[in-house]
UniProtKB/TrEMBL annotation:
Keywords: Coiled coil, Hydrolase, Protease, Serine protease. It catalyses: Hydrolysis of proteins in presence of ATP. Belongs to the peptidase S16 family. Its EC number is 3.4.21.53. Residues 526-553 form a coiled coil. Residues 569-764 form the Lon proteolytic domain. It comes from Shewanella decolorationis S12. The active site is at S659, K702. PANTHER family: ATP DEPENDENT LON PROTEASE FAMILY MEMBER (PTHR10046). This is endopeptidase La.
C-alpha cells in the first residue's frame, strides 16, 4: 500500500488564481493598437503543418479532414493560410460548354487560358451579331439577284424550249397541246385550226382515229419525259443555287472568322470549334436568312441577346484575375456541388441545351480548394457518393440527378466531363471522423491528411504575448475599440479559466471573439474610448446573467429550505459532496448531501442510486472501488459484519461520475465509527483502490457552488472545500473567493489521500498504526478513526459469535 500523508495542504490565495502579468509585452505597449495582429491562428502549429503538407502534394487522395470542436477557428486558420498560399504549379483554366455539332445531346468542353473565357464569349457574340446582319445583306443585293435571275432564266429557257419543241411536233400532227399553271396538260385532235367535236371526230375513218390516239399517246410519253427532265433541271438549278448561296455565305464567313481563328491559333480546341461552327452555319443558313419563322423563333429563344442559341458560348467558370480559387460551400447539396442543367420554356414547349448548364462549387474550385462541413455533406442524399466518385476519377461529370434516381428514361443532356484538380477540406468532429474511418473504406484513401486542431495551448510568458496579438487581430478584423493592457490580461485569464488549467490557454477562438464583441458593446455604452478590464468583467457578468436561470432556481431551493443542506454542524454519516450541472451553454456547481447508514450484514455497500437505476456506470464503478478500499483497511482478517446503505439525498434525475467517491468513503467511515463529520466542509474527488485522490473536472464551479450556498446559509470562517492535490493547477476561481481565502474567511485544502480528508472532517488522525518494541504493527491506534471503527467492528464480530 502506498505511503499515506498525514495532513491536508491549505492553499494560499496565490494558488487559487493565476494572474496575467504580460511580462513579454514592453511597458510602452498600453493597448492592442500597438500590437501587430497575428496572421495565424494561435496555438495550431500541428494543424497548420498538416495543411502545408497536403497542399504541397499534387497526387490523388491527399485531401484534408480538419478535426476539432466548433469554435476552434478551423475555418479562419484555413482561409488565412490559403489566402497566403502560393500554388506550386498554378494550372487554372476557364471552362466553357459549347454545342457538339455532331451530337447536340453531348455538349463539348472548351478549356481556355485563365481569364479569357468571357472575352471569347464576347468575341463569339460580336461575331454572331455581325453575321446576323451581314449574311442577309449578302443575299439582298443586285449582284446576288442578277446571278440568281440568270440561273432562273436559264432553267426557264430550257423548260420552255423543250415544251415549245413538243408543241410544234404536236401541231405538225394536228394535235393541240396546252398546259395549265397547276401543271395539268391537255391534248386535243384538230380539225384544221379548230378542235374536233364529237360529230367531226366520229366522221373520221377508223384508221384516222387510231392514228390520232397513237400520236397522242406518243406525245404523252414524250411529255412525261420532259417533265422528268424539268425536275432534274430544277434539282440542278437548286444545287447550283445552293452552291452559289454557300459560296456567298462562305465569302462572308471567311472574312469574319479569319481574325478570330488567327487570335486563337495556339489553342487547337478553339480553332476546331470555330471550324465546326463555320461549317454548321453553312448548313443552317435559314436561321440567319429567316426562311422558317418557327425554327427561327426557337433558335433565338434566349433571355439574353438576339443571337442564335446554337452558337452561344456558356462560360461556366471564369477565373478572372485570381491565382488560386478558394470556395466555401455552406450548403453542399448535389446541385450546388456538382452543377445542374436548367430547363427553359418557350411558347409552352420545355427544352434544354448546353447554354442552360450551370456550374457547381466543384467547377468554381477546380484548380484550388473547396471547404465544406463534413456533417452537412453526409446529411444530403447522394452528395457523399458523388464526391467520392469525382475524387476517384478526377473528373467532374455533370450528370442529371433526376436520371440517377429515376426509373424512367428521361431525356437529358450528357455533357462532356471536365478534368478535376481540387483539394477538398472537410471540417468535422472526432466522432464523425471515427465513423467514416470505421464504415467507409474509401475515406482513408481519399482523405489521407488529418489536421487535428488543439483545444488548449501551454500558458507561458511568450504564449501570453502571442495571445495578446491574437486578441489584437480579432479587434482589427471586427473594427472594435482597442483593448487596454488590463483588458488584455483579463481576457487571457478568462481563457485560462475556459481551459480549466492555470498552465493552459483555451484555443476556442469563437468564445474569445464573442467576449470581445460584448466587451466592445459595454465600452461603447459607457462612452469609453477603449475596452478596459471593467468592461470585460461587465460582459462576463452579462453572459452569466443570460444563461443562469437554472442555477438561480436551484439556489432559490437552498434559500427557501426546499433542498436540505447543513453548513455549520457535525453529523454522523452525512457529508456535503460537490457536483456540476451542465446545460448547453452553462455549467455550475452545487453541493449534494450524501448519507450513509449501517446495519448488521456481510460487508456490502448497497448503492441505492444503482439499485433504483438512477446511478450511471461510472458512479457504480466508483462505489465498488471504495468498497474494495474499505475491505482492504477494515476487513483484511475478518469480514466486515455490516451492510452500508449509501445514497444521494434529494436526487431525482440520476447520478453519474466518480467525483463523489471520496465523499462517500468518508460518509461510510463516519457511519461505521459513529464519529460526526463536519458539515462546514464540502469535498470533491475520486479515489482508487489504494485510497489515493484522483483529479476530477469542474473543480472551479464546484468550489464556487459551495461558497454561494454558504453565503445563503450563513458564512463562518471555518468553511471550506477539500479537493485532490492534482487539481490545484486547475484553479481559476472567482475574485470574491480568492479574497475570502486571503482574509481567512474561507479555506481550500488539497489532499493526495482520502485519509487526509477523514482527518480534517472527523477531527482525528485517520490511520495511525500502533508500534510495539519500536516497530510498526498492522494494528491501528485505538484513538484514530480506523482504530475506533476497528473496535466497533470487532465488538460486532464478537457479538455475532456469541449469538
Amino acid at each position: 500500500m502506498p505511503t499515506v500523508p498525514t495532513a491536508a495542504i491549505p492553499l494560499t490565495s496565490q494558488q487559487l488564481y493565476r494572474k496575467s502579468d504580460l511580462k513579454q509585452l514592453s511597458p510602452e505597449c498600453q493597448s492592442t493598437a500597438q500590437l501587430t495582429p497575428l496572421d495565424d491562428i494561435v496555438g495550431q502549429e500541428r494543424a497548420q503543418q498538416a495543411v502545408e503538407f497536403a497542399m504541397g502534394i499534387k497526387e490523388k487522395g491527399y485531401n484534408i479532414y480538419a478535426i476539432g470542436q466548433n469554435g476552434l477557428g478551423k475555418r479562419t486558420m484555413m482561409l488565412r493560410y490559403l489566402n497566403r498560399h502560393e500554388p506550386i504549379e498554378p494550372a487554372l483554366f476557364d471552362w466553357c460548354y459549347v454545342v457538339n455539332f455532331d451530337d447536340t445531346r453531348s455538349p463539348k468542353v472548351l478549356k481556355l487560358t485563365a481569364g479569357t473565357g468571357l472575352e471569347f464569349k464576347k468575341s463569339i457574340e460580336k461575331l454572331m451579331l455581325k453575321l446576323v446582319k451581314a449574311l442577309p445583306l449578302a443575299f439582298d443585293n443586285e449582284m446576288y439577284y442578277a446571278r440568281a435571275e440568270k440561273l432562273k432564266n436559264q432553267l426557264t429557257q430550257k423548260q420552255e424550249a423543250a415544251l415549245t419543241e413538243l408543241s410544234e411536233e404536236a401541231k405538225q400532227k394536228n394535235i393541240s397541246l396546252s398546259l395549265t399553271l397547276q401543271g395539268d396538260y391537255q391534248m386535243v385532235a384538230l380539225n384544221g385550226e379548230e378542235p374536233h367535236d364529237e360529230i367531226s371526230f366520229g366522221a373520221l375513218t377508223e384508221a384516222e382515229r387510231a392514228q390520232f390516239e397513237s400520236n397522242i399517246n406518243g406525245l404523252e410519253v414524250k411529255l412525261r419525259g420532259i417533265i422528268r427532265q424539268n425536275t432534274e433541271w430544277e434539282e440542278e438549278f437548286s444545287d447550283t443555287q445552293q452552291e452559289h448561296d454557300e459560296q456567298v455565305a462562305k465569302d462572308v464567313l471567311v472574312h469574319f472568322f479569319k481574325p478570330l481563328k488567327d487570335k486563337y491559333k495556339h489553342q487547337p480546341e478553339v480553332r476546331a470549334f470555330l471550324t465546326g461552327m463555320q461549317a454548321d452555319i453553312l448548313s443552317n443558313l435559314d436561321i440567319f436568312l429567316e426562311e422558317s419563322e418557327e425554327q427561327l423563333a426557337l433558335a433565338y429563344a434566349s433571355l439574353e441577346k438576339k443571337m442564335p442559341r446554337r452558337y452561344q458560348v456558356n462560360v461556366i467558370v471564369c477565373q478572372g484575375e485570381q491565382t488560386f480559387p478558394i470556395v466555401v460551400e455552406e450548403s453542399p447539396s448535389y446541385h450546388s456541388l456538382f452543377g445542374y442543367v436548367e430547363n427553359a420554356t418557350f411558347r409552352g414547349t420545355v427544352f434544354t441545351d448546353f447554354s442552360l448548364i450551370r456550374a457547381g462549387s466543384l467547377h468554381k474550385a477546380n484548380g484550388g480548394v473547396l471547404l465544406m462541413d463534413a456533417i452537412k455533406v453526409l446529411e444530403r442524399p447522394y452528395v457523399w457518393d458523388g464526391l467520392k466518385r469525382a475524387l476517384r476519377s478526377r473528373k467532374l461529370d455533370l450528370s442529371s440527378l433526376e436520371r440517377e434516381v429515376s426509373l424512367s428514361g428521361t431525356i437529358s443532356l450528357a455533357p462532356e466531363p471536365i478534368p478535376l484538380d481540387v483539394k477538398i477540406i472537410l471540417f468535422g468532429d472526432h466522432e464523425t471522423y471515427q465513423l467514416l474511418q470505421l464504415y467507409d473504406p474509401d475515406f482513408s484513401e481519399l482523405f489521407r491528411v488529418t489536421a487535428d486542431f488543439e483545444d488548449v495551448m501551454d500558458r507561458t510568458d511568450v504564449s501570453e504575448a502571442q495571445y495578446a496579438r491574437f486578441i489584437s487581430s480579432i479587434v482589427h478584423d471586427n473594427n472594435m475599440l482597442h483593448c487596454d493592457r488590463s483588458a488584455i490580461a483579463r481576457i487571457i485569464e478568462y481563457s485560462s479559466r475556459e481551459a480549466q488549467d492555470q498552465q493552459k490557454l483555451s484555443l476556442h477562438s469563437a468564445n474569445i471573439a464573442n467576449l470581445l464583441r460584448e466587451s466592445n458593446f459595454c465600452a461603447k455604452a459607457a462612452a469609453s474610448l477603449r475596452i478596459e478590464k471593467q468592461h470585460v468583467e461587465q460582459a462576463l457578468k452579462n453572459q452569466e446573467q443570460r444563461v443562469s436561470r437554472l442555477r438561480d432556481n436551484i439556489m432559490e431551493s437552498f434559500i427557501n429550505g426546499t433542498t436540505l443542506i447543513n453548513t455549520h454542524d457535525k453529523v454522523v454519516g452525512q457529508i456535503n459532496a460537490l457536483s456540476v450541472i451542465s446545460t448547453s451553454d452553462h455549467q455550475f456547481g452545487i453541493p449534494n448531501r450524501i448519507t450513509a447508514i449501517t446495519a448488521f450484514g456481510k460487508g456490502e455497500v448497497l448503492d441505492i442510486e444503482h439499485r433504483v437505476k438512477l446511478g450511471g456506470r461510472i458512479h457504480s464503478k466508483g462505489v465498488l472501488i471504495l468498497t474494495a478500499y474499505l475491505a482492504s483497511v477494515l476487513g483484511k482478517t475478518a469480514q466486515i459484519p455490516l451492510t452500508t446503505y449509501l445514497t444521494f439525498e434529494q436526487s431525482y434525475s440520476g447520478v453519474d461520475g466518480d467525483s463523489a467517491s471520496m465523499a462517500e468513503c468518508c460518509a461510510i467511515i463516519s457511519a461505521i465509527s459513529e464519529l460526526p463529520l463536519r458539515q462546514d466542509i464540502a469535498i470533491t474527488g475520486s479515489m482508487n483502490q489504494f485510497g489515493e485522490a484522483q483529479p476530477i473536472g469542474g473543480v472551479n464551479e464546484k468550489i464556487e457552488g459551495f461558497f454561494d450556498v454558504c453565503k445563503i446559509k450563513g458564512r463562518s470562517s471555518s468553511q471550506g472545500v477539500i479537493i485532490p492535490e492534482s487539481n490545484i493547477a486547475n484553479l481559476m476561481l472567482r475574485q470574491d473567493i480568492v479574497e475570502a481565502v486571503e482574509h481567512g474567511e474561507f479555506h481550500i485544502w488539497a489532499i493526495s489521500h482520502v485519509t487526509q480528508a477523514m482527518t480534517l472532517l472527523l477531527g482525528k488522525a485517520a490511520a495511525t498504526l500502533q508500534t510495539h518494541n519500536s516497530k510498526t504493527t498492522d494494528n491501528y491506534d485505538p484513538e484514530c478513526v480506523f482504530g475506533i471503527a476497528q473496535q466497533k467492528l470487532n465488538a460486532l464480530r464478537a457479538l455475532a459469535k456469541t449469538n
